[in-house]
């Protein structure tokens, strides 16, 4: 069974790899032996994490800058990864850039920014990595979506203007990411590309966790009665990146404590 999950010799690019959820994802891949490219707009954090994981797990790791709104930046990232490691086995799309506001107050510009920072960024990364994967007839694409790409946020929890963090463009964009994943799986599966989603449930950032009343209410919306810990995404990510999921594509794995299954 261990060999099924072994990532030794694999190169994984994690876009949005140095953040609250991205860091544990990178650590999970490193634990199982993958070579890593950790990328986000904050190159200093990416390089620091890459150095830490390289020293801790004796793997090769790079920290690189990428802006998911900039195609040239994305192209440079994949070119760098390919030149350094000779191949790209898996892409994890974890980065997003969103905005806040209610439907009544959101301008066209803000809406477009929200969609581009979710679905648009994922699309650009997938489009630019595909040639590297198709050249080898092998690749795994793991898009990080959200439970709010599957269900609507409860306004009693978040409030009518969604200022805590769930504007309409976020859920719409994440739903588009799920559909994009299915599309890639359908059109490229016979060319060696597997595409799947992970939809995290409530994994609130540390600053949100300071609001204890909100956190209690958030946890109660799940079947397990609590919010998730970042490390609880690690198993799903390793599973989808490894040979253990060699016959799984086009799926959306909700890691949500049962929140979407009520």
Automatic annotation (TrEMBL):
Membrane-crossing residue ranges in chain numbering: none
Any one GO molecular-function label of the UniProt entry: oxidoreductase activity, acting on the CH-OH group of donors, NAD or NADP as acceptor
SUPFAM superfamilies per UniProt: NAD(P)-binding Rossmann-fold domains
Protein keywords: Oxidoreductase
EC number(s) recorded for this UniProt protein: 1.1.1.385
A Pfam family assignment: adh_short_C2
Keyword Oxidoreductase in record: yes
Superkingdom: Bacteria
Family: Belongs to the short-chain dehydrogenases/reductases (SDR) family.
Protein name as annotated: Dihydroanticapsin 7-dehydrogenase
Gene behind the chain: bacC_2
